[in-house]
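Q: What does the predicted 3D structure of DUF3105 domain-containing protein look like?
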Amino acid sequence: MGSAEKSPATERSARSEELRRAERVRERRGRILAIGAAVVVVAGLVVGGVVLIDAQSNGGAAAASDPKDSKDSKDPEDSKGGDAKDRGPKGPGHFVTGADGVRTWTGTLTRNHTTETVKYPMEPPVGGDHHPAWQNCDGEVYAQPIDSMNAVHALEHGAVWVTYNGQASKADVDALGAKVRRTPYTLMSPVGDQKDPVMLTAWGHQRTVRGASDPAVDAFLAKFVQGSQTPEPGAPCTGGLGQ
């Protein structure tokens, strides 16, 4: 005998059971996916929060340490035209002498403009706060002393200042004067209280020479007239103060 055929009712019941099993599988799969998505979202929120907190913390630290935001930090050029409270070179500066005999000032040379008297720690001064008007320095030879504050402004423009005291010989003074007159961005004047008979000064640099024939004179002029030390290269040496 052959097996009995399933009745339509039995087939419908089996089919319904199969559909219910499939539905339960789908529901379980949906719950698993939903839980996984939730875990991913929560993890992302946690990581994002940590990154945000860390960024805010680093940003705060950077802001606290940024010298541009410090009240004590100020570009000297930003103070030009005003009356600064502190005058002259800043810090415990001193001269360091190189193998070529040139002395370089190690302290900070501020560049504020002021009409108040500036007390410089060296004579002649090699830089610092100065008068708004520069001393004409287009090969100018001054027979009388000039104001150091105006001369320092000329140094800022890249000039070399040749100075001498009463111990310098007339021959050296005349020869140096002739050299200065032939050299743009130079000036010359007597400075009675300088320590050596003849001295050459540029912004931040200075040296003593034996006289007009000393090879160091031409070497100094070649290096420092509009040299790399110049704070304002190309600024004029005319249109300022004469004598």
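A (community wiki): The structure tokens above were generated from the sequence. The longest strand covers residues 160-164. The chain has four helices and seven strands.
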